């Protein structure tokens, strides 16, 4: 390593790397020395807890050390696999790999000494499938013979250029002198008060832990950093938003009371509380930035209508943005039904409108003749100009990126923002991803809302289900059959629904069945939905386009095919499409090719109707990355932090971050902290001004 090497040096100049390996490392986000130091091990082999092979039992998560007695590739049914038999003098255990066979074949030979870790299973003897492993004692380098061995995420690209765990450790060892030049973005006072170790020490111990205590302290510090900077970003965003002056909407005209009086039911206590929170916010001369959370069917739309009407009474226009045309149409009908009675004008703006109709609507919006515009992302197109946009509602807001929301807000002069979601978000996720927003929760269901009875059925019981559906139809009620999004292509999704539709036509002769999917033209979708809404169709076969937006009070049964392919939150949202009328409603989950973990997930759906409880379980089982049915690119991806298990760290980091953001709004007193934020979080700074 040359004297000129620093943290910004390209990785290709480090001993043991070179051009080809540098290109492979770049695919893993490692371009500089600093990137390498912040590429953390995926897990560790702890040789201080090694078990003898004779002592392991089925189900154990165990670490063992032994020698490969025999190994090789073999054919099993339709696929190849690699097997190795490991012996430690007390017994033998078989190691099996079904994936990455080519790499494993080159990596493991007879006579190799391995440290391995994994779950012990029993199949013709004890075995571990896809164990973590590391070669030991193959050279004199003590880096490979420590008691706690780091194992790094290894992509296919890295394996191609023969970068394994040992090579990774050796490369990092070659830059060990640079640990000393790492500057800590936290002042000593914060480090001492929060009982943290220094950043320099944390990075040393994360790669080369000398003890479990060292390792735990390093993990804690690096997790704290990730949570801290995201919380700091949120706190600064909130600061910036609160400084934005706007119209104070203080009037409450008779129209609002007329809407409430005309509902035909009393609002729940939770709805009244939330409306009050929002009205207090918009009455202030600073822009509201609030997230409304509520379970499917909890009555968020009514809340949005009432506060939107209040905004109109105050002389401003309102924009309501939904992620799909189906949901936009649903909202438009709901808004129009209640607002027409009090002479508040409402229009629909979506992508597939005729040019003449669109032009007419745009002219009316620009002239201030339309009070409330409901639409999709069509609302953020350049030709949409409001006369006086003062209030924005974004529904299912996690489906829109930050930029899209920002584009809509720019159509007005600092309008108030109400974001809504029917995805109940666990508390840790809410403060992580929505910490810049005030939170309102509708945690009470309307009194007339009956819980949906949920049952899991195996495919061999489907005939009984079909008989039940026929009985429901004969009693005058309607049903939905949903097919999952198949991962390969949208076409296969459609094919599954189309095939299902054809077979159901044979099963339910004499019963009217419709098919709806994402590839239909808008007028075709509208026609099918209208027929279903008018009870002209008894059964609606659908892809997951009905996840949001279809409220048919007469629908009493939903059959979900291949239920194991869905997340719990998505299943819950689908289930929320029924049970809106007076009849008892049923959600039937069909399991096919199911594994134990999937069965456990589906069992939760049978027992629990509370969306917030389901969301917590979904987050625990699938992790934050897959929590939402549609991935959001604007969500920050942690390297080491974990929202499921890091609750106490998040709360600690949040408190410190908020105190700093409050006392030092531009971070002038924290230059290294500011530098790190601007460097690593630049893409999330669009609404923050600290320079």
List the helices and strands and how they pair.
Elements: H1 18-27, H2 33-37, E1 43-46, E2 61-76, E3 79-87, E4 92-97, H3 101-107, E5 113-122, E6 126-129, E7 132-135, E8 148-151, H4 156-160, H5 165-173, H6 188-193, H7 199-207, H8 212-242, H9 254-261, H10 269-282, E9 289-294, H11 300-313, E10 317-321, H12 325-339, E11 346-349, H13 355-366, E12 372-375, E13 389-395, H14 402-409, E14 416-421, H15 427-433, E15 438-442, E16 453-458, H16 462-474, E17 478-482, H17 490-507, E18 513-516, H18 522-533, E19 539-542, E20 555-560, H19 568-575, E21 586-591, H20 596-607, H21 611-622, H22 647-663, H23 671-680
Parallel strand pairs: 4-6, 9-14, 9-15, 10-12, 10-13, 11-12, 13-14, 16-21, 17-19, 17-20, 18-19, 20-21
Antiparallel strand pairs: 1-8, 2-3, 2-5, 3-4, 5-6, 5-7
Helix pairs in contact: 7-8, 8-22, 9-11, 10-11, 11-12
Provide the structure class. Answer: alpha/beta
Q: State the helicity in percent bands.
A: 25-40%
Distance between the termini: 36 Å
CATH fold descriptor of the domain at 453-608: Rossmann fold
Just give the CATH class of the domain at 453-608. Alpha Beta
Main pleated-sheet profile: 7 strands, parallel
Strands ordered across the widest β-sheet: 11-12-10-13-14-9-15
The second-level CATH architecture of the domain at 453-608 is: 3-Layer(aba) Sandwich
Rg value: 29 Å
Can you say what the CATH homologous superfamily of the domain at 453-608 is? P-loop containing nucleotide triphosphate hydrolases
* Overall average pLDDT: 84
Please tell me what the overall shape is. globular
Total strands: the figure is 21
Low-pLDDT segments: 140-145, 486-491, 627-634
Oligomer: single chain
* DSSP strand content: 15-25%
Number of helices: 23
